[in-house]
Amino acid sequence: MIPQYLVDFDLQTLPRTKTDVIVIGSGIAGLFTAIQASQDRHVIMITKKALLESNTRYAQGGIAAVISEDDSPQYHRQDTLMAGAGLCSSSSVDLLVNEGPEGVKELIRLGTTFDLENGELALTQEGAHSHRRILHANGDATGYEIVRALAEKVAEHDHIEVWEHHFVIDVITENGECKGALVQRPDGQRIFVQANATVLCSGGAGQLYRYTTNPEVATADGVAIAYRAGAEVRDMEFIQFHPTALCYPGAPRFLISEAVRGEGAVLRNIKGERFMEKYHELLELAPRDIVARAILSEMEETKSTFVYLDITHEPEDMLKHRFPTIYETCMSYGLDMSTDWIPVAPAAHYMMGGVKTDLNGESSIKRLFACGEVSSTGVHGANRLASNSLSEAIVFGRRIVNRLRELSPLDWEPQDIRVDEGRLESPRQAIVERRLKLQKVMVRYVGLRRNKTLLLKGLDELKRQLPIFQSGLSKREEFEFANMLTSSLLVTSAALSREESRGAHYREDFPLRDDEGWRKHLLQRRDQEIVEEISDDV
């Protein structure tokens, strides 16, 4: 019911340009991959907004890598596998923990300035990490510092051509091979970009939910594009909700970093009582899914819409130095972290699933790669360990570029690829209304706690929107909504199929983890039933 292409076109009559590599997205994955690839190739980087607008920009906590002599890749591996709840790929995790430190060194060489203590890289600890291995920048502005440094390199590079405010509608495929991308320019004109390789670095899916820490650009475009093209997507039921997003009248769901709890902040319900000891032995540093559901339980029990995060035991100077962005943002709403408890509630944060890739970042479609949050490399399993995502983007970005150098040139001329389904009618209902309705459906029926009744209701509500694929879509927000609808259907269908609770996926009607029956992945491909794949975690 979901078509391969969103719009009608005739490839032979479209304007065309060629490049070696297309990179779609400008977060850490896209920027780093483009820089590495541009050493010996021409790259066109396509971003639907400005170069600096991405999920990475808003990443506060930091990047996880083994730096300290007290730490080891083996410890990092154990922590990652534990958080991943039996669905991590052991080989992928090995790559992450062993190659991550060199990736951090490369970021430093490219101009990223991490915080120092006594002349050494400053390290902090976050939830479910056994050691202090989180590097950060400007206290709590790590993502912005990384994007700043990498974007400067991209902007000045002769072999990287940046297309801002362009939208990739679909990738073009033939015989299971990606030939390039169909792109819409800011003026509405469309162009076919032919490339030897196309790399999806389009970020996550936070905007599927009404309450999210993600910026408005996080509309799951890459997953939907890959799915329509026939690529396998995996583990879409696993959506991580960050436990502590600011919940205050007039304020956005601003992320209060896990690092705040890492530095000793405690959670209190509206009665002022600490409550995490009722839910997990690691208290506030338990895995995110456990903390998020604990907060939800306390909110329901006390009939409140939030709980409190309390770090008032720390002096004002320390908070200003360690968490300047969070401190200033809270202060702008009249909340002083040094004296006030901060009202927080869970919000959609990170997509563990995505486009299934091999260890070189290549999807099931030849010449189509995925890197960063859009990908499913096997690192995160059922629940991402805090701050592993930035490391993953660096490690697999490098591996993708190494694989690109092994590809033979694409010897191909546009064939008679023509799509004409007569889609002329524009959507009658305003896209902003459709988008809000979809987000509310996902919060209500496919949120932190799920059951069969809710999921079936959500699936039915989402399917009511399917006729939009027969409309003449032409604007960026219309393409985004089509991508959000596609990805929401994937999340809901997978959540309905997985009849157990594991990691970030919690079923009230199947509250226990079932390793015997469900220690496996769910694969989805267009026009096929969901396929089960045994996990290779050990």
Please report the total strand number as a whole number. Answer: 23
Backbone CA Rg: 22 Å
Structural class: alpha+beta
Termini separation comes to: 38 Å
Number of helices: 14
Pathway: Cofactor biosynthesis; NAD(+) biosynthesis; iminoaspartate from L-aspartate (oxidase route): step 1/1
Catalytic activity: L-aspartate + O2 = iminosuccinate + H2O2
EC number: 1.4.3.16
Cofactor: FAD
Please give a structural write-up:
This protein has helices spanning 28-37, 73-84, 90-109, 142-156, 221-229, 258-262, 288-301, 316-322, 324-332, 388-404, 431-445, 452-463, 476-497, 515-518; strands at residues 9-10, 16-24, 43-47, 63-64, 116-117, 120-121, 123-124, 134-135, 160-164, 167-174, 177-184, 190-200, 233-234, 239-246, 266-268, 307-310, 342-351, 354-356, 368-370, 375-376, 418-419, 520-524, 531-534. With 538 residues, the protein is an alpha+beta fold. The strands form six sheets. Strands 2, 3, 9, 10, 11, 12 and 19 form a seven-stranded mixed sheet that branches. It has a five-stranded mixed sheet with strand order 20-18-13-22-23. Helix 12 (452-463) packs antiparallel against helix 13 (476-497). The two termini are 38 Å apart.
List its salient traits.
538 residues, alpha+beta, seven-stranded mixed beta sheet, five-stranded mixed beta sheet, 14 helices, 23 strands, 19% strand, globular, Fum_Rdtase/Succ_DH_flav-like_C
